[in-house]
Records
---
Amino acid sequence: MKGYLLVRLLESIVTIWGVLTIMFFSLRLTGDPALVMLPIGTPPEQVEEFRRALGFDRPVIIQYFDFFGRALRGDFGTSIRFDEPALSLVLERLPRTAELALLAMVVAILLGGFAGIIATIKQNSVVELLAMGAALFGQATPVFWLGIMLILLFAARLQWLPSGGTGGVSHLILPVFTLAVFSSASIARLLRSSLLEIQGNDYVRTAHAKGLSSRKVLFTHQLRNALIPVVTVIGIQTGHLLGGAVITETIFSWPGAGRLIVQAIQNRDFPVVQAAAAVFATTIVLINFLVDLTYSVLDPRIRISGDN
Amino acid sequence: MRRKIDVRNVIPEDLYRDALSGKISRRSLIRRGTVLGLSLPGIAGLLAACGGDDDDSEATTSSDLTGGSTATVAATATESAGSASPASSTETSGSQTGGSGPSGSVTIAQGNDLDTLDPHQTATTNTDQSVISHLYTSLIIRNPDLELVPALAETWEATSDTTWEFKLRDDIEFPNGEKLDANTVKWNVDRVLNPDTNARIRSWFNLVDECRAVDDTTVEFVTSEPYPALADQLSMFFLLAPEWAAEHNPASEAMGTGPYELVEWIKDDHLTIKAKAEYWGDPVSFETVTFRAVPEASSRVSGLLAGDFQVLTTVPPDDFPRINDSGDATAGSLASTRTAMVNINCEVAPFDDPKVRQALNYAVNKEAIAEALFSGLNVEPSQGQILTPAYFGFNPDLEPYPYDPDMARQLLEEAGVQDGTEVEFTVPIGRYLLGQEITQVIAGQLQEVGFNVTITEIPFSVFLDKLITEHSMSPLAYITYAWPTLDADGLLSLLQKGNQYSYWPNQEYSDLLDEARSTTDPDTRRDLYAQATAIMREDAGVIFLFPQPFTYATVNSIEWDVRPDDWVRAFEMRQKE
């Protein structure tokens, strides 16, 4: 187990380093912050001075080592746009994004779990058709379209919910639902298919044969085994939710880290993009790490093979 | 030398009477006024004087929308007079809100949030500078009629071609008790000029050699050469309190002499300000003002209809019917001070031949573009120049290139351009209002006269790199320009030979601009700019298109003196009686 953890940890570090390196160089291929930030007509010498003050006049490779040296000490530089430390800007916004993503994950698991199980129980009925039809629709619907349609219906037409921004629970409903739809659809479809796949296995037949109720078989025997692929997907979906937050936060004017990144990219605010990439990459790697650990809880065989 | 204009002195008596009595429409007033050679402030003053209730808001002059060098929006069209500007002596301003003090609230939704509250680190008018103008004050302010009127400075004049004198009010204090006097002004100018500040607006003061405090209430600016737009530039230069700034971060905090104080700023969400109990200038209408950042245009419209917002900027033309049919709100548009054009790289063949460039201008059907993409917004072609009527130096005698594809083909033939000549056309992604769509329509029209057009879409930052740093722009590029001082010198100089933005090396034009820069005399300058713009039309330095429309919406209970130059100010809005 120890060796397994160590290998996974090393892999994680390499992944984060890779993400940051790719991010660092691709950012620098896509234009210069000085020109975007200075007013029209600024003479070239002053553009150059501005660039120098930000350190962008140095060779890229020097900037790269400088960046990593500082990043290791937790210093991601100062936001060009806000003139505040980039990392603390990202961390300030992160709770807002986490709030959306976690709630959306909970909603997705509940909705998706319910739809997946009901579709299995009521196999070959109208209920299955409805549940899986809804899941197909949910998976095929682009987030931005769904978000705007929900705003039009619930905010503009019915006026039941606010169109965006932050405030009470009512402000959460639309963005959380919008964000949850895609993930719940994936969970529902996957759960249903893995439950059905397991249905034909010997141990399920045995459980039925020894007289357990179908409900008991489903929840204690089938579900636990069906969960392994689902947990993997939930792990991956968390990454999607963080990414989806970029779109959802923009539509619903939600002041989270996703919008910060979009703005930072538009403004060529390199330090903020880098800090956000580091935070997001670390979060996603960490979640995947936890997912791997969860397998070993769900399936002892994985734990054993890891020791070999 | 004062720039202030009394409406009655510059407008013929009969025109003034007709306008006041409502005999002529605002639109024909502008047309007649322009033909008579009236300056824009004069016309605007007359429009203001005649007030009026027509909501033909596009009637006016110009306007804009995507942000200056940076962002988006703005609006215009002074409806009825009443500017609630804090300037103490707006002669043209009419009645304000009734009642005594400020009351109620207004929420203004725009596409972007602010970047900073530091007045010296931003040139973005519609967001940063607009909010800052509620919290801080400038020496002079431009009112909704686009006239410069006193604010902190009571009077100003050019005492020679290179010196300007400003007389300040002597009763202004910052909320912390710091006195605002001539030394404060000097400290602020020095802060911007100091290279260590790395101020983003430093280039505004490139011609300023020195700012001197002559006595407590007299400030003198010395410039290295004549700088006729200095007063205009100072209307967007806001003053910090030196002692306070030493101990606070002006990027995220604020303490100024404006009519409002900062309550809170939740980045990318909202910024709220509250009217000060005591304020030295004209009273404001709204007690509380909230600026909300709502990036998605359809969310802005939905929020307006749901009652979350009262004022929007940048409304998609497609949403106009939805808003106007609601009965609760009204959408409008007007020509902004931002001009759309196609930049031509005149340094590469065959575009180094004026005939080819003229052919391009004849080949583009401006009316068809407006019809297809800005239906109902009354977008009209630029008058054969990149200036809009809002600019000093606008040439009212020029005409747009007519749409004439036969003429275009003939000119191309004369120039020896083969049918099917390849041409690359670049447009930045998501930067300009319908920029990519407009580019596609133009490409189709150029295809008609024999070019084989390839469209390249790239991020704006890459676009700027190519345009400016690398100087390697494709033969055609869609671009929009606005210049905040509304002076021809700024905008026209972008195309002057040797300027980093210019791909049109015309010596005669460059010489005229240099000559205009050597004097502050308005008549001489106007005459020189008339010649320069005529040359640009004839030599077809760009493909002239149209002023970009500025679109906005307000709930019906609010009245806004919308303006073409990007400023979005709650003190120019009021509750309808």
---
Amino acid sequence: MKEILAKGQTCPIPVIWTKNAYDQGERHIRIEVDNAIACENLRRFATHLGGSFDVKDIDGGFAVTLQFGDAVECPACELMEMPAVGSHAVFCTKEVLGTGDDQLGANLMAMFFYTLAESDTPPKTICLMNGGVRLATENDQVKAHLQTLLDRGVEVLVCGTCLNFFGLENPVGQVSNMYEIVSKLEQAAKVITVS
Amino acid sequence: MTVVTFKSTHSAMVAQKQLSGVVDFVVMPTPRQISASCGIALKIGEEDAQQVGALLAKTLGEMFAVHDLS
């Protein structure tokens, strides 16, 4: 088993080191990291390549164990081929863009997410709250754009409280909470608010 | 890529109502290389271009255009 000590390393370093080990033929890899984000990205890495993922708490962090089968033939991880995402966040709190006319606003919102999905530098994070969660659950066009953004490595966070309020479920993206969303907005280089 | 553009925003919205459930389309900003009065465009399948053109011609007359950008 390959051991990787990545405590103190922020993403994407733990994933890059793990991918390097994978590319060198390692199929059983144990990585020590000290933050939950690295754990999540390693889980995504393993899932992407059809591997198993296990995490245990250790002193000062986490021990992640990944196990891959030999059947995986393509070592080129698409994670590494994804276009780079930006350092900004998009915070969207409505299902229509702007005020004036909702039909026009719905069109503008669809066009906004279409353009984001086509952008050379998509945001690092998209946070959806209040009526914005409808975009990730009920709006087929925007859902397709959000899926494209997810596939490109963008993090899509959907307010769980808001989903619950509207009686919605199974959004495109990750169900999240106020703590995580505020944290992501605070960490972003800039925040584009769509309201 | 096949794109339908419009001379007015109103026409773009009428077209969406007319095409909903008939052909698949994606609302997108009018591509920069196309000059149109309205910023709303619809991306459609190349195979649907003829049908869309015929349908919209009945209601929109010359208020729209179909572009093949492939």
